[in-house]
Amino acid sequence: MATNQLKEPPKRLQYPLDSSSYKLLNEIGAGVSAVVYKAICIPMNSAAVAIKSIDLDRSRPDLDDVRREAKTLSLLSHPNILKAHCSFTVDRRLWVVMPFMAAGSLQSIISHSHPNGLTEPCIAVVLRDTLNALSYLHGQGHLHRDIKAGNILVDTNGQVKLADFGVSASIYESSTCSSLKFTDVAGTPYWMAPEVIHSHTGYSFKADIWSFGITALELAHGRPPLSHLPPSKSMMLKITKRFRFSDLDKYRKGNGNKFSKAFKDMVASCLDQDPSKRPTADKLLKHPFFKNCKGTDFLVKNVLLGLPSVEKRYKESKVNEHADGGGHNDDDDDDDEDPAMQVKERRISGWNFNQDGLELDPVFPNDDAGAKKSELGGESVMRKMEELVNVGGSEAGNGGGGVKKREKMLATLNVLKGSLEQELLEVKFLLNMIRGEEENDRDQVVAAASADHNEEKEISMLRAALENERKKNLQLELQLHNCKIQLSSLNISN
Ligand SMILES: Nc1ncnc2c1ncn2[C@@H]1O[C@H](COP(=O)(O)OP(=O)(O)OP(=O)(O)O)[C@@H](O)[C@H]1O
């Protein structure tokens, strides 16, 4: 009606920007550099709020970036996006005041009540609403950069909202946009897309889609893939370099069969190694998996009913953590391992999604597996090339058969070339990692002046590792060079 159209839009309530207007009630969560509290806002009729208090010394944000981001955020509005009421600094902490989502995050729900994951119809509701939020964000030209169950919040009425947008983007990212810096502050890179780990090109919309796929696995299995690996400063190396077989067994749940083909297909499309092949959020929303998706009341009946409050769950999780002896040891590094265990480790060059098992499979450099990615290690590449050259020489004058052989060689050499290029990228990535760690250690040694023996030992070990990687790099460049010569000579003779 005309009268309705003339009505002023409801004014947004301005939450006070001073800490004395708020009363902190309980701690309800904690991340690497932030603590989340349930609180009340006294001048707002004691309305319940959640306050994320971020340690600015640990997260080193550019406050101008935070302000700019907050301003952009205030212009966004979507039912599935949690918008902060306001933010302000309190000493060396940034307080982000948000609506209180009484059921907490999906991560806290599954870790408390569904350790083996949610059922598919519940997953569908959560993922559909998350995709609605993502589709809106991407449509407005924004990335989320931190999609995970810990950032999907639920209210008691089953409403699902994506949180931490903007805050994570500007606070947790260094201005140089180096994805490796992520390990300093944000903890675990389990949700990171391969292109974000392996290159310095940074984030794209499709990296959000990869994280969305990992979140689907997290909701289905109760935790993200590889999360049993202890968090430590070498986390990135652990993910990209070595893999313990005992961990592989622990990780395998063997429950891939309980999931529908539609779900597996939807996750597989998000976890394509090639970002350009991953669907957009809009396209995903049309996937058959979301057909006949239930409403939010379904979540209330099947997940929220009987669930203890978020504060109670957090308290219990703290008690359990203490009983377990504090969980993972941060300094846990496989280098101290029993030598027998080390033998069981192999370098890995990446991860492939295993659609049937609904899990990630490690890719080992020496696996032949169709030689479609970087599975070929340096030595076997050389052997393969020698074989090819020998075959090529003896077949050269054999008319039609020779041409066919040559085409086959050409195709194989192209695969080898691709494989070497990828291997080279990975070695470069490792070199950067090692250089970064070496620099950090060097700073610490200078600061510690008296320098204890262990650190020096560690540095020399890192130097040796760096030297090894350098040699390997050289060798790979050489092999690549030979491969290119081989290819161009074949192209010319064809
Ligand atoms: N607005 C909110 N309402 C209710 N609970 C919340 C709210 N924000 C966060 N929480 C709870 O606090 C927990 C920790 O939040 P935080 O944002 O620190 O989580 P995280 O994303 O897992 O950590 P990090 O972002 O540091 O990796 C969440 O898992 C959730 O249960």
TrEMBL record:
Gene Ontology process terms (BP): regulation of stomatal opening
Transmembrane segments: none
SUPFAM superfamilies per record: Protein kinase-like (PK-like)
One protein family per Pfam: Pkinase
Annotated region described as Disordered, given as residue ranges: 318-338
Compositional bias annotation for Basic and acidic residues: 318-329
Binding site for ATP: K52
Record-annotated Protein kinase domain positions: 22-290
UniProt-listed SMART domains: S_TKc
GO molecular function terms noted in the UniProt entry: ATP binding; protein kinase activity; protein serine/threonine kinase activator activity
Keywords: ATP-binding, Coiled coil, Nucleotide-binding
Coiled coil: 459-486
Record bears the keyword ATP-binding: yes
UniProt entry tagged with the keyword Transmembrane helix: no
Domain of life: Eukaryota
The family this protein is said to belong to: Belongs to the protein kinase superfamily. STE Ser/Thr protein kinase family. STE20 subfamily.
Protein name: Protein kinase domain-containing protein
Organism encoding this protein: Vigna mungo
